[in-house]
Amino acid sequence: MKVQSIDRAFDIMEELSREPEGLSCTEISQRLNLPTSTVYRLLYVLRVRNYIHKNESTNVYRLGLGFLELTSMFLHSLELKTEARPYLRTLSRQTGQVVFLGTEQDHELVYIDKNEPFDDRRKYCFIGQRQPLHCTALGKTLLTVYTDDEIRKIYKIKKMNPMTSKTITDVEKLIEEVNLSRGRQYSIDDEEHVLGHFCVSAPIYDYRSVLIAAVSTSWDLNSIEVHDKEKNIELIKECARKISIHMGFVENQTEKVASPTIRE
């Protein structure tokens, strides 16, 4: 059952959300084809609840802090692991491989969750385990928030130790790889961390369009064909996209992402 006054109140808030500079009562009335008296009455109630703010000098209405507080409480209640878990399970089932969720702490990769196929007897990382950023697909994805100079600064402090003969140990080559990863929205680890293993990772964004984590899957190079490799890349990108949406991310907003501060 539709409650007309509630429906109209939402129409007003949605209209104001599309106008950062705000609208007058008359403009809202004209846009929604509602009587000015009705719009004024609803605006009054929304103002009392702090969902609408009125500029007294211009008589223009904008969304208020009450609306921000309400949405912030919801957004802060979202837990990455909780939101990601069903998608990790689906990706693991689709690929038949182990799937990882990771974030960055002190310029290191930290595994925060994983999902393994039921019949997989191989032993993988423990939750909380740390790995280098420079030689893992997850790590390269997490590095995409940094500028070239920030990456150089990180690796003036941290060592790029070789894990295999294929590990990138030159910072300029790493920067090239990170820039490539940023452009295509996925990263790879081609035997750079473990010989014989290939790994793909994609970024996860939150409601601020900030990269907050990454998801990955890996497999033995002898276990799948080239066409399966391309299919897995698309599956992991789609998995990351779905998790991002559940974290409040609005697509096509990644240009707003800001680099975190480099800690000395």
UniProtKB/TrEMBL annotation:
Protein's UniProt keywords contain DNA-binding: yes
Domain of life from the UniProt record: Bacteria
Location of the HTH iclR-type domain: 3-65
UniProt-listed InterPro entries: GAF-like_dom_sf (IPR029016), HTH_MetabolicPath_Reg (IPR050707), Tscrpt_reg_IclR_C (IPR014757), Tscrpt_reg_IclR_N (IPR005471), WH-like_DNA-bd_sf (IPR036388), WH_DNA-bd_sf (IPR036390)
Record keywords, A-Z: DNA-binding, Transcription, Transcription regulation
Keyword Membrane attached: no
Protein's GO biological process: negative regulation of DNA-templated transcription
Database matches in SMART domains: HTH_ICLR
PROSITE patterns for this protein: HTH_ICLR, ICLR_ED
Protein name (record): IclR family transcriptional regulator
